[in-house]
Structures are given as C-alpha cells and as structure tokens.
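User: Second chain of the day. Same drill as before.
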Amino acid sequence: MPANTYHSVSPDPTRLNDHLSQCVVALGPMHRVRCAAEAVDAFLAPRFVSLLLVMSALLLAGLSF
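Assistant: Same format as last time:
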C-alpha cells in the first residue's frame, strides 16, 4: 500500500455547523467592516491615478471660487 493514501471520510453536518460558528466568532464584529474596506479597495486601487487627478481638479476648482 502506498504511503500517501488518502481516505475519503463522509462529512458530518453537525461538525460543519460547529466549525462555521467558530469561524464567525473568530472573525469578530469587524468582519463586515473589513469586507467593505476590501471591496472599496478592490474598486479604487486600479483607478488610483484617475482618482487623484479628479480629486486634484475638484480641489483646484473649489479653491478658485
């Protein structure tokens, strides 16, 4: 028999629920905030230079009035 034999084990749904509840507790209350920040970052990161240009233009337009 080969040394690297993997045995298939049928998953136990109660253990999965326990695991998921532990994951929720481990993530903490800031999980949604972190996910939102990552989503904003993923949206803005490719547009960073354009964002800087637009913000600079708005700042200059605001200062000129």
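The first helix runs from residue 13 to 27.

User: Great, on to the next one.
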